[in-house]
């Protein structure tokens, strides 16, 4: 009996080890099956992210009146991501469910905002467009399938209901008279930081409720992008934020409205601290692909530098349960090859390809053989394509100035010259800060033809939103038809508001930015 117990006791460890080994194998197989199931497209419908990159070189020396050597380098990166709703829901039911969920969350947001205005503190969670369990499940499903597309951008777009977004940082001024107008993917912003975003809101809400919700999402978006790109976008307050009248209110067929806001920071320009996080949005960052040619040298070495981020969403079916996110990142710089070190093109012999890139195109509009600022091995990869850079003549020349003495009311004058031989329809938009109040009753639009005769028929439609003291700016939008070879002068009386000493800019010699 004792021997039998010993045999049983001795055999037990062997059985236990075998059982543990079998259980471990089953767990490994189960984990692999789960991983494969997650990685596999749901029903064969989820497409992978795509990433395309392009570098275009264009010699601007022939167009430079001063004879200074100038080469334009344009990096353009395009990323797409497809999101599909849960297959368990019918397409129409999923679309209706999403709209109802957003309507309920927006209503809750508006209610909480009204309560906070009465003295009750509103929860920060209520400021977001959706916080229900269904939306959390949808958000979790949304971020599961990111590969090349930056997840943080997708989360921002989904959480805040962003329909489109356009952000740009610019250093220097584009010389339109010498360099012309580049037509393909060129963020020709003014020397500033410019942010414009459109949001989805429920059409069942009233206008004040929509305004409250959009303003809260706008604040969240500014703070998120400020942290993402190391910029002072959170400084865009009410005094420099406006709604373009032409984009003020748009509707979709999915029971949603689109509201647009725009803000400009005149003193914020591009810097290397913006360039580094901008590159980190790319799949391979700066370790591979064409982005590795962008070095961290300060951008003051360039004649002009502009970086931009543009996000857009598109519905792939009638219920808008299938959406495509498209992110376009563009860097456009004009460099002097003899002194600029911003682009390490002379060390571009061994560029590693990015595994996520579907296509990598390097093209030039001129013959780069023998160029001292290009590596010889890199020259062999460049395709000479005259159509890679489409330079258009500038049809309109603009000039603006303030007329009058310092201590008396004056006039804000804008001159538009149509250089084309055909009439042009233009939309003129001007945003003037509150400390320069405009008197819209005195607005005058006068057009002079080639022979100097005045013609008062250029103005078609106008929209003027007056400013508020220490609040929103004045927004003027004019729809004009400029006759051929004519000059149109827009003049509006203005005044200067009394400022507190704390409202003066830090750099007194620089003056004030008035748009």
UniProtKB/TrEMBL annotation:
Keywords assigned by UniProt, alphabetized: Signal
The UniProt record lists the keyword Signal: yes
Stretch list, region Disordered: 102-134
Residues spanning the signal sequence: 1-39
GO cellular component: GPI-anchor transamidase complex
PANTHER family xrefs: GPI TRANSAMIDASE COMPONENT PIG-T, GPI TRANSAMIDASE COMPONENT PIG-T-RELATED
Protein name: GPI transamidase component PIG-T
Pfam families documented for this protein: Gpi16
Gene Ontology biological process: attachment of GPI anchor to protein
Source organism of this protein record: Capsaspora owczarzaki (strain ATCC 30864)
Compositionally biased residues, Low complexity: 106-117
Superkingdom per UniProt: Eukaryota
């Amino acid at each position: 009996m004792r021997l039998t117990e010993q045999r049983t006791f001795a055999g037990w460890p062997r059985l236990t080890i075998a059982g543990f080994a079998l259980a471990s194998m089953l767990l490994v197989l189960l984990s692999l099956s789960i991983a494969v199931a997650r990685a596999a497209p749901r029903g064969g419908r989820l497409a992978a992210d795509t990433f395309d990159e392009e570098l275009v070189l264009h010699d601007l020396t022939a167009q430079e009146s001063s004879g200074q050597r100038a080469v334009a380098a344009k990096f353009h990166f395009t990323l797409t991501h497809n999101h599909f709703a849960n297959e368990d829901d019918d397409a129409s039911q999923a679309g209706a469910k999403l709209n109802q969920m957003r309507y309920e969350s927006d209503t809750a947001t508006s209610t909480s905002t009204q309560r906070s205005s009465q003295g009750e503190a509103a929860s920060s969670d209520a400021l977001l467009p959706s916080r229900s369990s269904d939306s959390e499940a949808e958000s979790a499903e949304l971020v599961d399938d990111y590969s090349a597309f930056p997840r943080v951008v997708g989360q921002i777009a989904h959480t805040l209901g962003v329909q489109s977004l356009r952000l740009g940082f610019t250093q220097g001024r584009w010389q339109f008279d010498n360099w012309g107008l580049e037509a393909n993917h060129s963020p020709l912003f003014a020397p500033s930081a410019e942010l414009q975003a459109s949001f989805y809101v429920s059409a069942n809400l009233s206008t004040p409720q929509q305004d409250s919700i959009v303003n809260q999402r706008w604040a969240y978006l500014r703070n998120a992008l400020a942290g993402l790109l190391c910029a002072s976008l959170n400084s865009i307050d009410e005094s420099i934020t406006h709604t373009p009248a032409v984009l003020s209110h748009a509707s979709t067929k999915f029971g949603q409205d689109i509201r647009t806001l725009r803000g400009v920071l005149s003193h914020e320009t591009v810097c290397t601290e913006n360039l580094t996080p901008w590159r980190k949005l790319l799949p391979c960052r700066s370790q591979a692909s064409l982005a590795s040619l962008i070095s961290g040298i300060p951008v003051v070495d360039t004649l002009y530098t502009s970086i931009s981020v543009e996000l857009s969403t598109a519905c792939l079916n009638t219920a808008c349960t299938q959406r495509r996110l498209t992110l376009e990142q563009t860097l456009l710089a004009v460099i002097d090859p003899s002194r600029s070190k911003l682009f390490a093109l002379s060390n571009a012999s061994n560029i590693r390809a990015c595994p996520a890139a579907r296509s990598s195109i390097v093209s030039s509009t001129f013959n780069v053989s023998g160029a001292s600022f290009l590596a010889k091995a890199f020259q062999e990869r460049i395709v000479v394509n005259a159509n890679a850079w489409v330079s258009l003549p500038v049809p309109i020349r603009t000039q603006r100035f303030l007329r009058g003495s310092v201590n008396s009311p004056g006039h804000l004058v804008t001159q538009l010259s149509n250089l084309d031989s055909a009439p042009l329809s233009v939309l003129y938009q001007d945003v003037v800060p509150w400390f320069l109040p405009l008197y819209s009753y005195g607005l005058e639009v006068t057009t002079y033809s080639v022979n100097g005769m005045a013609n008062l028929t250029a103005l078609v439609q106008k929209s003027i939103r007056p400013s508020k003291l220490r609040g929103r700016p004045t927004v003027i939008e004019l729809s004009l038809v400029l006759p051929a070879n004519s000059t149109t002068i827009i003049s509006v009386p203005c005044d200067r508001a009394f400022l507190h000493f704390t409202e003066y800019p830090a750099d007194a010699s620089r003056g004030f930015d008035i748009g």
